[in-house]
User: Fold these one by one.
Assistant:
Number 1:
Amino acid sequence: MRIIISPAKKMNRNVDSFACRALPRFLPRAEQLCRQLQGMTYEELKALWKCNDRIAQQNVERLQSMDLHRGLTPAILAYEGIQYQYMAPGVFTSEELEYVQEHLRILSGFYGILRPFDGVVPYRLEMQAKLPNENGKDLYSYWGKSIADALFSETDCVLNLASREYSQCVSAHLKDGVRFVTCRFCQRTGDSLTEKVTLCKMARGEMVRYLAERQIESVEQVRTFDRLGYHYEEDESDETVCTFVAEG
């Protein structure tokens, strides 16, 4: 089983906590994207990133000095979003770190797919970005089925904890014999179920921590997740979706 998650926009450098073990699988393709971004104007980059001037300036400065081989941070520590805060990889035990290194994969618009201890640098490039390239008009066309193929070369069972924007770069290229199961985290209000973005991010991070603590190896075991007030809702689940519901 492999678990896929989304990255986070906010990133940091941390070269002291854990050592990187490898470079990203698709580093040459990330270098190609880096060169393309470095050739764009400030206004073009700001429009691509859809951000304010402060964030644009920060990331332009990162691009100007970007070196994808030095000063690297393990991917699992590089992202700072809500999901990663709830995952709290900085306090994983050695056994839990080995679990995520084997089972967890981070999807990335810039790097493609990452193992937790792959070395990365801070960047800004979301998977849904409209960046024209030799294969088409956006990053979905740039990566094509390469991310999915890399994942399927490791496993025939994928637990999807990624957002739709990221998971579709895998789900759009499913092969016969591959099991792809998405976790939904819903709030029940009366008779209706809703998915709230922030609460979903919290639950996804907590789920990764839960799986690592229990060294879970199958989708069936995932259904025992019971944190943050969630419980598995069998009536709202099927072979491709595991639905967890919190009341209120």
Note: The chain has a mean pLDDT of 96.
Number 2:
Amino acid sequence: MMNQDNKRVVCFGEVLWDVMPTGRKPGGAPMNVAYHLRRLGIDSTVISRIGADPAGDGMRSFLNGIGISTALVQVDHHQATSEVLATIGSHNEVSYEIVAPVAWDFITTDPHSVKAVAQADAFVYGSLAVRSPQSRETLFELLRHARYRLFDVNIRPPHYNRETIERLLSTADAVKLNHHELLEISGWLGNRSDSEYAGAVLLQDRYGLAEIIVTKGEHGASYYTPSFRYDYPAVPVSVKDTIGSGDSFLAAFLAQKLRGESAESMLSFATTLGAYVTTQSGACPPYAATDLNRFMWEKYLS
């Protein structure tokens, strides 16, 4: 792992097993983000819930093995640990069959979680885990204590609704979403064009967002603030699968932001790590600083 910084991030939401043709791999956007932050030298932890079952035991072992504390991972004696059927289709795009209910639908508030969020430099959360009333109310309570709120939009039909998405946007300091999600949400506000810029401006005006990060796959990424826009191209790679690439992008972006880096540095590093992860299998491949340095060196010399 890379050198440690004195920065802390708490991620909230689903932890699960991605069941793929090649076998089971640990996943869930919040856990993926925490994993990559840890790899990048940021102290990260996860607030989630697993079942009292072999799959939960396996997840706990995995988290402990990668240095992520399980102190805030609750155990449910009635609901199972989440397992998701992931299918890789044409153009290496991934589709998911997400079962409900599962343990992370019942995350509860406790003093330890509140304290962790209040002390963290950033609080990262998504939209999937708030499909259930229990986890939704827990997240809204924790948001009251966060210093910096980063909303990672993760629209998975039918596991979302407009009212909840808009409430989460209204409380966020920053939002990360892909191009399709941006057009869908801005469409709710009257955007009838395919203009990314028009959609971003609508979101800024409606929800008071200080930062918007838009990922666009092979077309790179863009970063918006009320005063400027910065675009960065994608890194061309031979894709193995896209599972977790957006999560690694977000982790790299946040790691650079917490270190006070520029918009160019944030997007450059984020697109590079996101590209690297697509060349590997699964959302959480092992890597070290030397692996990323070699990858960056090869890509920028090619």
Note: The mean pLDDT is 93.
Number 3:
Amino acid sequence: MPDQSLLDHDDAATATPTGASLSAQSGVTGRWFLPEADSNAPVRLFLFPHAGSGGMIYRPWPALLPEDVAHQIVQIPGREMRRSEPSFLQIEPLVEALYEALVDELDERPFAFFGHCLGAQLAYRVTLLFEQDGMRGPILLGTSGWTPVGFAMTTLEQAHMPEPELIRWMKNLGSFPEEVYDDPQMLSMIIPALRADLEVSATYLDDGAPIRPPIVAYSGKSDPLMPPEAMDAWIPRTPAFLGNSTFPGGHFYIDHAEHRLAVIADYIRHLRRELAKAGR
């Protein structure tokens, strides 16, 4: 069951359209990243959650990550501890705000990105902004359950589908534990964030932009949103595509403990190789 401490907040969720960046959007005031577990760790890993989620998808990760990798979970407005803040409804303003927050957060240590579904989409576009501004970007990008070509992109109609239909769609994807659907209070917190994130995803227009860091991909064999071979769309986006690892299961294959452990182990293996190449 989702960690209630991440969901608790005094105010009800709101979803207000915004085109403003972080510096200009007065409603966005909360912490963009959960605090580091160890600020002395030499490497930082930023984890980007899927649509409708916050930190809950990555709650099991700290115990599985090595001590020299400090994880920080991206906290998007409109959910969990930022539930009282307006949600973004367009991808470009959200990417710009995330980028600004990261620039303020980073120090001299190397860092890497990992994202699932919408999280992979956001991590990819944020990486592109680092390069466009001539900034030092992530040393590795891990993408799970999303690809810029071949993925069944969300439409605005899906974002606004009636609640019973939306819940059926969530169940079919396996988005959340079964007990969530029997808890009206939990659903009242999740659904507004999910609708906002689906709208964000629907505003994405792919431009084929390549990025410099290596990309390593992960997917479920029976993901209804894309076939495993769709992950080959990453090949022209990077000078070094490190391959796609496919696991039994659907879109949320990564929630399975065994698959999660395998993804983390493989990702950390690639991360260490990239660090060694960089002399870190």
Note: The first strand starts at residue 43 and ends at 48.
Number 4:
Amino acid sequence: MFVLILGLALWVLAHFFKRLAPERRAALGDKGKGLVALVLAVSVVLMVLGYRAAPVIPVYAPFPGAGHLNNLLMVVAVLLFGAGSPGSWLSTRMRHPMLISVKVWAIAHLLVNGDLASLILFGGLLAWAVGEVILINRNAPAWQRDPDSKPGPRDARLVAVWAVMFVVIAGVHIWLGHNPFMGTY
């Protein structure tokens, strides 16, 4: 579990660095962006490897049918994540759609995974997303919706990209040995 926790810690620290030490981050310039991107890539690899290697230590049993709720929430999470792209209509209507997406994703996965490694990974990323929103709102409290924004062609492309991404994500899960559409788990 050490590798999983290390990956999660690197993820959180790399993201919080910009919020907690903005002067130091700005002083690094473009090199800093590359360094943060590298740390984030390493953190994702460590989280995946650590999660897959972690022993299954049951903590709670998911309720029957939780898999279907998970799949529904994942549809919402993927759409919200895509909606966070600049220029989308939804991004002008809600603050932090990508971080809300991470929260929905984490909750969806906590519904169907009741082992300790899942609690660490998904619970940790849920806690990070909550903390990130708090830090962003503290540093930049002013935000207003754009009352003049309307859905447009960019949003239609967003829905198409969302559908492809959902299929890709499901395909990766199946490739890794877990079909999220089988059974009534």
Note: The radius of gyration is 18 Å.
